[in-house]
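User: two proteins, same treatment. go.

Assistant:
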Amino acid sequence: MLKVELINHDNYYGLVDVVRLFYGPCVENREEGYITCEYAPDLIIQSIAKENSDLPSNRQVKRDLFATLTTLTNTSFPWGCLTGIRPTIVAREEGYDYKSLMEKYFVREDKAKLACDTGKLEYDIARQASSKLNIYTGVPFCPGRCEYCSFVAEDSTKHLDRLSDYADAIIKEMKLLSPAIKEAPGTVYMGGGTPTVFDDKDFARVMEAMADALSIDKETEFTVEAGRPDTITESKLDSMRAAGVNRICINPQTMRDETLMKLNRRHSSEDVIRVFKLARSMGFDVINMDLIAGLKYETADDFLDTINKVIALNPENITIHTLYKKRRAKMTRDDVMVADSRGDIDGAVKTVYEMLYDNGYIPYYMYRQKDTELGLENTGFCKEGTHNIYNVAMMSEECSVLSVGAGGMSKRAFGDGRYERCSCIKDVSLYMNKVEEMAKKKIEFFS
């Protein structure tokens, strides 16, 4: 068992992230000042905060531990000792100097350049998004639970009777919030779950209410994460167009039918193509498609085949996610992290990024999550001028977000790096019974 003793500092969080990267979950003993990991070899390491370091002590001890474990295991990672969610922030701190990221934090050259390229555009978008309110409407229902997913989502095949009532509840909340929305929001994003899980009639009611109650105008970036092709109908696309939706997501995750079936996604790759072409014919000229690298049932070559098929459709946005272990997902940590049989996923992601650059896509936002193979990232790419502002606003500490619906998290930014959060009840039934209370709470939070 590995034991890391903390000397002259208490940066447990950062050191746990580093050990977790190499070996797996850790246990903190804050009373006695050490961290243990039962999945690692028997070893004692002292982590000492140094004076006159070129880094703040919390980063210095992470870097030293990372260097030690790299030497002991003869293993390194693409992002070096950067374990945080947003490496673009560090890139900005370093003046977008990729060589500085490489030297200070052991970041691999391609990732250092990616962080700098992404960070520049991401920062400009965040400044644009900070001038107006951003609104999120959440629909925590799906037509089935994908094997890799742990989002707050009800399996609507078992709770179809709740969907119409939930539509009533979010419409009611929007109307209650409406008087407090003084001007047209900069962005409105409808996510989930799967927002298009409603039947055509209820979906049309929700779309109409959003357009009216949320003061959406022609300048508002209005996105619906349609997501699952098996829930998208011509009627729903009509409702979106009537409400002023100007961006949609059609998310295959993979274009391999065998994988889709095993993941419990009830659509085929042909369904993706059919719905994409339908949306195009109806005037949707900004479409995002999400893909996942490193899926349990696929090889690196399968992922490359998927990206070729998606690039051929020529969507404006393509978001590349790397499979990670979500807390309540059916997939185990080993399913995600032990991926030798899948080939070189890291190399495949690198190749995919090069293909996207070659086809006119540029990275505009990025974030990372724990328990991802090799600590890889999620990156949104776009054709020039088609970036999704909300995606950046949601992550930025400079942007305010009002969240509507069960389980949402509102955020109020104060413009100087400070922000506060306001949560909403996650339980759908409880939320529907306390809509007035939740709306009042949010109005007071933003007042």
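Protein 2:
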Amino acid sequence: MIIKLQKISMKFEKNFFLAVTKRSLSWIYDLLDNINKGCYGLFSVGIVITMSLSYAMEKNEPSDSSIMYAVVSLAAFCVQLNVASPKFDIGILGVAGCFSAVVVTFIACHVYSYVKKVHVFSLEKYTAGIGYVTAMAIQNLIPVFSVIGGIAIINQAVIKLFGVYSIFELTSKLIIGLFKNMKAGYLPGLLYNFLLHVLWLFGFHGSNILEPVAVAKFGLDSNEIFSKAFFDTYVVMGGCGTTICILLALLIFYRKDRISKLAKIGVYTVIFNINEVLNFGLPIVWNPVFAVPFICTPIVVYSISYAATYFGIVPPVVNEVTWTTPVLFSGYMATGSIKGSLLQLFCIMVGILIYMPFLHIYKNIQEVTEKERIRELVGLFKEYEERNEEPNLLARSDKYGSFARILLQNLKADIKDKKLYLLFQPQIKGKGHCIGAEALLRWEHSQYGFIYPPLIISLAKDGGILEELERQIFDMAGYAIRRVSEE
């Protein structure tokens, strides 16, 4: 009786302690939840803004026109959400709505760019003598309403024809419908893997978009080999695309190359199966070079794991493991056997072999592309030189300005690390007597090779580091003079 009372007392104390702790720390949860909903909860809105501004930048639009691209795209995105409907879910503004965000932004930017160039729709003749900002707003009336009105008409047509409240709901129903009549087995899992990674390849959060399918079709209690837990354990090792394979390939075989630098940063997140650094930094998404391995590697890994489980080589997944559990640990915890970890290790080695040739192709393309980028920037700079004009590349809002700002950051880092150097051209007089030398500044960029010297000076001047660069040049020249005097 006493022991029973002690157990009841201990249980009461434990529950009381948990309740008090939860209440006292609730402010931390509220704080983090607010940050999550305020940032990640507006993920689709962020996509609309960044994608529209990037589109304008690629079109070399000035900053004021770039803002209009963002405004038009945001308006079009909000219109297709059909916010007046009682079925509207604010969750669509997060990762769930990224599919429609990308599609609508792409259409809106293209239509807006085309319509505003059509002379018939221009109201320029009515804005003579009006202030610049007001004139620009009036001139954009027809292009803006053409985009918003067109998206609104398309959205209403979708609602009437398919009985849904938005384009987002239509895409969700179409995807879920693909699995409705499929029998359990290997094929549903194969289709799930394929669709999820195709969505991710285009920058859509495939896991969130297919979440209804995973819940309805691939629960752990379905007594089937493939489940969401199976998928998290064997397929998305390192994240979607089985990107732990590309991470290890970079660290092992490309550790001395520039592209391995990103892998060194990404390793801290990929260990926990979070791969956004690689997906958007390398990048993998929207990259035709990595399209094949990004889709094929998960399918091959899935097939190997399915076969190993089907033939009893490895025990089935019987435990749900948090998707952020590191590889090898997750394999053991999910199956209760070291064989699960060994299967993961084998699949990773196969994945590395798949990614390797595409990494080599990507590296070669990057080298060519980088040389072309610096050639274009230097060509633009020389055009300003010929006209005897100040280029001020850092102030530009187009791709040249963006690239110039990246170069400036690299220049600051290399000045700090003292990677710039001087070459000396002798000055000869009379019978071959050297009376001095001209100091020539050189900067060999780790990615782009030798940078045009006048461009270095221009970037340093506009970036506010010219004085620092001058001091370093005097130090290098003084050191060289001392060395020559000593010899």
